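Question (not urgent): is this output format expected?
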Amino acid sequence: MKGSDFARFRSWCLAQGHSLKTVTKSVRYLVHFGEDRGLDLDPSALTEDRVIEWIAKCRESGTHPKTLNNYVRELNLWSRFNKFGWKLSYFRRHAPVLTDLLSEEDEDRLRQVRFPDPSLNARNRAMLLLSLDQGPRRDEMLQMKLSDLVDTPGGGKGILVRRGKGDKPRLLYVSAEAWAAIDTYVRSYRVHSDPSALFTARRGPVSYGMMGKIAKDIGRAAGVPNFSWHRGRHRMIDAMLDRGVSLPAIQEVAGHSKAETTVAYASRRALRTLTEREVRNFQKRRFEPPQPIAPAETRAAAVANPVASSADRDAGTGVRGLELAGPVLPLPDLLLGEV
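Got this back:
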């Protein structure tokens, strides 16, 4: 592939409304396909069958489904640019199991983490509390500026996310606890290695890799090895669902472009809760003696006369408290026979 092809692809993507960061990542993927993965992207030689075979080899070599979906996304974009007329299907990814999510106990342990160095402690706690409070994405936290600390229309404090996912801005309504940690960090401990960045290190703004290391250090200290900034985001959404926050409000705070994404969080979590409750109830009743079944003639009498008086029921008919709604239909003899 020639550099001019990637230059035209880059210009086309920008014209389609993709952000500069997204386009740069797409070009990096395509270069990786050709130089490291052996896929010839020349439009005159690239076919759908060849791409499918290449992806199958990547899968057999152990490439993670998430990475494969990234490949599919970039190749579909390349197909649209060259007007190939084909579109690859994404690999199905299963939702994380319940144990992958942070519990309230995990959150409490995370909030108790402290670092020996006062400056690092102030910065890392400000980042942690902001993550658990409003759940910004890692990229969004890296892009935050001092000028993004604002007053909200309701009189509280907030942080403006100027370029969220899809270059969409939104306002984060920061709690008093998280704001106090951020304010203390900015006033007393922030390193002035960058004039505008909110979260800084000795040599400039905190980097993407450094944020990942900070999350691992926090999780290790709290005894929550699976902690990450994205799991802190999930925990924020779970906490809002627990407190009855409406789905549109959660969608706005989380920065979901589609309401279906927010609904998926709620429905998946509700299904797991319902499933566990029913399974636990079954486990409690599993070894209890079964309830006695009324004789066939008693059941037949109940069907024939569903509005029997309470005196009749008290006389020993065995159908005390039976309430039938709607018209009474005759039952087959099989159901009225002995069990």
